[in-house]
Amino acid sequence: MSQRQDDQRNLLIAVVLSVAVMLGWQLFYVGPQVKEHQEKQQRERVAEQQAEQKASRDAAQPGVARPSVGPGTQTALPVRPAGTRAEALGLSARLPIETPSITGSISLKGGLVDDIVLQNYRETVDPKSPHVVLFSPLGSPNAYFAEYGWQGAPGSQIALPDSETVWQAEANAKLTPQTPVTLTWVNGQGMVFKRTLAIDEHYMLTVTNAVENTTSGDVVLTPYARLYRFGTPRIEGFFIMHEGLIGVPGDAGLQEITYADVLEDGGGRSFDGKTGGWLGITDKYWAAALIPDQKQTYAGSFRGQRPAGPGSQEVFWTDYQQSPVIVSAGTTQTIEGHLFAGAKQVRKIEEYEANLGIEKFELLVDWGWFYFITKPLFYLLDWLYRLLGNFGLAIIGVTVLVKIAFFPLSNKSYVSMAKMKKLQPQMEQLRERYTDDKAKMQQELMELYKKEKINPLAGCLPILVQIPVFFALYKVLFVSIDMRHAPFFGWIQDLSAPDPTSIFNLFGLLPYSVPDFLMLGIWPVIMGITMWLQMQLNPPQPDPIQQKIFNWMPLVFTFLLAGFPAGLVIYWAWNNILSIVQQWYISSKQGVEIHLVDNIKRQFAGLGRLFGRKPKSESKG
After folding, report:
1. What pLDDT digit, counting tens, does each position of 144-170 carry?
2. What is the pLDDT of residues 402-445, one digit of tens each?
3. Which of 344, 350, 250 is nearest to 291 (CA)?
4. 585 phi and psi angles, rounded to 5 deg
5. How far apart are CA 459 and CA 413, in angstroms?
6. Integer Cα distance of 199 and 518 in angstroms
7. Residue 371's pLDDT is what?
């Protein structure tokens, strides 16, 4: 066997071992990790159910913090016993919320905004699956709610509303975009507290707290707002996207703190003397944010607390506290703020930023460091979607437009490759002449490239050019709620999720399920085939080892992209098809004969030689 065949065999062994390591990693490490994670989730659900049952039997449990004099300081907030979310909702009188985008209710006990269901979104692509629940009341599993209130001066004996205060509302009151509601509580000491809530047709509430002083003396009060979340939610855990506490506290810039980090000692953050901005908690597609008066000074914080005992949960919160106000005798003081609670719709968030003057509210959507590519790409996709009516077609349209934008660069690359094909006879002569002196052969090849003004790496350029767009599109598909559950055609019902089919059960024809690490769907296979065909149009690399690496790249990319969003794989496959057409046209224009079929036969023949088989022509000789 020749040295070249040895090199080729070694390369194949290396590639096979690499793939085996990758599959082994998935099978023996990632698979068990996923299984362990699922079992952990199951244990957590069982623990939650046991805790709920225990809570139903007990009178009450000690709970979490609520603000005292400064942000982040704590006093007890009791946990109300409940077995389920429905039972927790039934523990207090409620004022319903009804808009085109959300339904829910406000608890008259505590005046808490603690029940929000998103009407335009469901848990899965199944139209009969439950609507997404954002806020849940205190005492239910994974409670999540907003609280507004007043704090008195140190040593003050004035009764103030808290989480146990029962507010009064007009009979049959309902919070809708057309009908704001007002809650009232009288403390019996000459102070009247009113909380007026208004809501738009989407996800923004306006919360106006007013206090009337009918006594003969002045009263000093400090307004605050706080957003609580009980339990660590199930997160995607991808490095390209932040989930956890988030905000822009004035000039402090964007703050992103993970749930794990905020529970560490010193993991919380405080901000004093800030003006403008917002503080919140974000999921992949949903978020809640406290938005203080953008012209008033406030102190804010992000905090976390570990479970207080058996059956309790960790708690996360963000809050702000505005400067104290003096409520003079016979006067009323009013403080206004906003609460965002809903889906992270890009255009709606930008509209809120512009109309309400919220500083950098657009950063609620995680565009990443390359937002200057990601965000314009989202706008382009959104425009094409409105034009074509399908996000899959919009992705194909983006592919065409990107191809047009980079046409001069790609064209130059393909012209260079076409010239390399013309030089194949001279290159073969050099290889034969310097068979025993590879260094000299490489030197002569480089001189030939220089003389003919050819870039030997031209074949890589089209791939390198599209990588930034590829990752930007990945980011858009991953973080943009507009892509969530967006269908294409046929079996692709969610472009933001991987292709659900697999070649290992013949795309569903065989009656068994396939492990996640073997989910190699139709679109990844199409992408791999088109990538391989495109490689066959390129001239062979000077180094046989490099050429073999290029030959195996499509297989590696096929497995690599199998778990990526289907929309991304469709983009890559369609880009490959356009590249094949473009390269074929340029080669023909340059007078280079295209031997695609011969190249394919040569690849299969080379594969046969690697396994010790000789082509028929050699066997007969």
Report:
1. 999 999 999 888 889 999 988 999 999
2. 888 888 777 777 777 777 777 777 777 777 777 777 787 778 77
3. 250
4. -65, -45
5. 7
6. 47
7. 83
112-141, pLDDT tens digit by residue?
Answer: 999 999 999 999 898 899 999 999 998 888
Angle at 513 between CA 509 and CA 514, to 5 degrees: 105
State phi, psi for 535 to the nearest 5 degrees.
Answer: -65, -30
Q: What's domain 36-69+152-365's architecture?
A: Distorted Sandwich (2.70)
Closest CA to 612 of 182, 5, 23, 203: 5
Residue predicted with more confidence, 519 or 9: 519
Instruction: Please give the structure tokens belonging to residue 523.
Output: 């679109």
Give the Cα separation of 69 and 75 in Å (integer).
10
In 3D, which of 333, 122, 322 has the Cα closest to residue 212? 333
φ, ψ (nearest 5 deg) of residue 206: -105, 120
Render pLDDT for 572-612 as a digit per residue (tens, 0 to 9): 899 889 888 887 887 777 766 666 666 666 665 655 555 55
Across the range 564-570, mean pLDDT stands at: 89
Give Dmax (Cα) for the chain.
116
Inter-CA distances, 526 with 460, 521, 558, 576, 595, Å: 20, 9, 9, 10, 22
Q: Which of 59, 166, 161, 66 has the alpha carbon at shortest distance from 106? A: 166
Q: Which tokens is 179 given?
A: 């009908």
Burial of 406 (0-12, 13-18, 19+ CB in 10 A): middle
AA letter at 93: A
Closest-CA residue to 556 (of 15, 9, 155):
15
What length is written for the chain?
A: 621
Tell whether the torsion through CA atoms of 375, 379, 385 and 386 is positive or negative.
positive
Output the six-digit token pair for 132.
């997404």
Whole-angstrom distance, CA of residue 289 vs CA of residue 149: 16
322 in Cβ contact with 335 (< 8 Å)? yes
Q: What ranges make up the beta strands (E) of 236-354? A: 244-249, 255-257, 269-275, 277-282, 286-291, 297-305, 315-322, 325-327, 332-343
- Which string of b and e fits 302-320 if b means at least 16 CB within 10 Å? bbbbeeeeebbbbbbbbbb
Which amino acid is it at 319?
A: D
* Phi and psi based region of residue 507 (left: phi greater than 0; alpha: psi -120 to 50; beta: remaining): left
- The domains of the chain are located at 36-69+152-365, 375-615
Residues 180-200 as b or e (16 or more Cβ within 10 Å = b)? ebbbebeeeeebebbbbbbbb
How far apart CA 488 and CA 591 sit, in angstroms, is 40
Is the separation of the CB atoms in 289 and 247 below 8 Å? yes
> Using 50, 70 and 90 to split pLDDT, how confident is the model at 613?
low
Per-residue pLDDT tens for 364-392? 999 887 888 889 999 999 999 999 999 99
Return d(Cα 528, Cα 522) in angstroms, integer. 10
- Residue 100 is predicted with a pLDDT of 96
Residues facing residue 107 across a β-bridge: 94, 112
